[in-house]
Amino acid sequence: AEAAAEQLRLYRRDPGGWRGCRSTGEVAVSWRPSTEFAGNLYKGEGILPASPQNVWECIKPVAGGLRTKWDQNVKDFEVIEAISDTVSVCRTTTPSACMRIISPREFVDVVVMKQYEDGTMLSAATNVEHPLCPPQPNFVRGFNYPCGCFCIPVPG
């Protein structure tokens, strides 16, 4: 989990190579080639007219949280094992897509949540195997490289 958090911090500090691919009035999505796997990294950025704490409540990866209520790509989120108050092993499921042509997915990740002195909040995750969470029938087991969300306070 700490390695995933460090990788996200490195992505955030390195502005080079990002190319814009989509943008609306609220969100800009960029990509760049990954140095870890054959594929691309993606990042979405936006400023929301809300306090960082309220935004964090909507995105933080916790069982029973708000993410499953607004994010159509997250069907369920459960804690498999709480390692500490900031680190846990979690299972996230996604619904089927494209009229059920794409099967539901499940992801098992080790997740860390952090808050920094400047008020920035971070959730970082990466794939892990756990004996209490073998692959489940009717789901395709997905694999996450280091991924996560930053919630960064901005002036005003």
TrEMBL record:
Span of domain START: 1-156
* UniProt keyword list: Lipid transport, Lipid-binding, Transport
One GO term in the molecular function aspect is: cholesterol transfer activity
Which Pfam family, an example, fits this chain? Answer: START
Quote the InterPro entries the UniProt record gives. Answer: StARD5/6, START-like_dom_sf, START_lipid-bd_dom
Looking at the record's lineage, which domain of life comes first? Eukaryota
- GO biological process annotations for this chain's record? cholesterol import
Please explain the role this protein plays, according to its UniProt record. May be involved in the intracellular transport of sterols or other lipids. May bind cholesterol or other sterols.
Name of the molecule in the record: STAR5 protein
Which species is listed as the source?
Answer: Toxostoma redivivum (California thrasher)
